[in-house]
Automatic annotation (TrEMBL):
Name of the protein this chain belongs to: Phosphatase NudJ
Catalytic EC class: hydrolase
Boundaries of every Nudix hydrolase domain copy: 5-133
Annotated Pfam families: NUDIX
Family: Belongs to the Nudix hydrolase family. NudJ subfamily.
InterPro entries in the cross-refs: NUDIX_hydrolase-like_dom_sf, NUDIX_hydrolase_dom, NudJ
E.C. number: 3.6.1.-
Keyword terms of this UniProt record: Hydrolase, Magnesium
Gene3D superfamilies for the chain: Nucleoside Triphosphate Pyrophosphohydrolase
Coiled-coil blocks: none
Protein source organism: Georgfuchsia toluolica
Amino acid sequence: MNDNIWKPNVTVAALVERGGRYLLVEEETNDGIRLNQPAGHLDENESLVAACARETLEESAWQFVPTALVGVYQWRRPQGDVTYLRFAFAGTLGMFDAQRKLDSGILRTVWMTPEEIRATQDRHRSPLIWQCVEDHMRGRRFPLDLVRHYDN
């Protein structure tokens, strides 16, 4: 039996817009300091919606309640070593916890206009950052019940 079974990395991302600006995080990566939406990996036994709320809090100290699916994106890194399957959610911004320590590797949060995000694409963690913002600005919203989660 082949133990090298290919599996994509399942991730979630939050599209948080306030006053014409989007919430991004500046993070340390193997490719240097990059910009990303609050995003991260799905944990075992966790729903995609819960993962998005958790990752947003851990990376930005903002509470976030997903209300709609913006899109599902598949991207393979140019190095060809990893494929990501990203579920991006729009939602409602909640309270900010100024005392909360951000996840390891997260340097800071930033609020950027779409123009600023487009102008910094060379600093994006992936091309999905700008694609998600564009889709959000175009009004792409799908009901959350499109994404089903079943517990055992």
